[in-house]
Amino acid sequence: MEERRPEVVEESIWVAGEAIKKAPKLYGVPTGVEGLDELFFTSEVQGGKPVKKPLGGIPAYSVVNITGVSDTGKSLMAEQYTVMQASRGEAVAFITVESPAHFTVAGIRERAKAMGMDFENIEERIILIDAASHGRLRENIPDLLATLAHVIKTYKVKHTVIDSVTGLYEAKEMQARLVVRQLFNFMKKWYQTALFVSQKRSGHEELTAEAAGGYAISHIVDCSMVLSKDLVLTQAQSKLYKKPIGDVVRLFRIDGCRLCGHDTRTHLMEITETGLVRIGPPLSG
Q1: Residue 144: inside a domain, yes or no?
Q2: pLDDT score at 243
């Protein structure tokens, strides 16, 4: 068999000055999560020195991974983001992989009420794709992406939420990187600002982005947010968290963002009685 000779792929070569002309403008997309938007920033050069400037949300057109063990607030954050975008007049595609659409939308409606918004005013801008009830969408990524492309074109969608991306490579984690790469490339092609919720199997290395599928997601996406929880069992923990022994403490950390600057500290986090996630002060004071 004749060996194929290497070929130069000229269309892959960009001069930075030409590529930057096609780069989207960097601006923040408000998340609807109190305390989160101010943790991202950009820099401007003033008088020959870099000056930090708040971005006001996650970077537009970024693909963000929200990961953590169960009951840490991942889905709540995704729902708050969905409600916020719909309230801003922008359409959102919500791909539900874990729960059928009619159950998922009930949770989104509760999040809207807790945020002080009338769900009837935003419901037409939230389009659900029910991959939980349709195995064909879970098992066949091309079919899922074709369906999502149809929704984006039909409803002029600017944001995509997947809860959870882990369910798309469940029991076949060797394919995790392939699945996530396909999803990531699709979001970039369609200029989506996207949230991928992923599930961690255990509390091992809780404040890292490692999830089911290893590091497949965190190495591909633009930004990772890690949620965790800790049970206060010792006086040292009680002093650190400023909580009594027996309380559950929730923590939040941005585990890297390659599109803009970000706060690297670990923050306290809470879930309110009405089911809203709030990001609190950093542990370091």
Answers
A1: yes
A2: 86
**Is the pTM above the cut of 0.85?**
yes
Q: Is residue 110 part of a domain?
A: yes
Taken in order 79, 202, 36, 216, the sign of the CA dihedral is negative
Angstrom distances, CA of residue 100 to CA of 97, 118, 132, 250:
8, 23, 5, 28
Q: Is residue 78 part of a domain?
A: yes
- The alpha carbon of residue 189 and the mean position of all alpha carbons in its chain are separated, in whole angstroms, by 17
Q: Give the domain CATH number at 153.
A: 3.40.50.300
Strand order in the sheet with 40-46: 49-54, 40-46, 261-262
Count of C-beta atoms within a 10 Å radius of residue 168: 26
Is 220 within 8 Å of 53 (Cβ atoms)?
Answer: no
Predicted pLDDT of residue 242:
84
Q: Domain residues for 141?
A: 26-226
Question: For position 209, what pLDDT does the model report?
Answer: 54
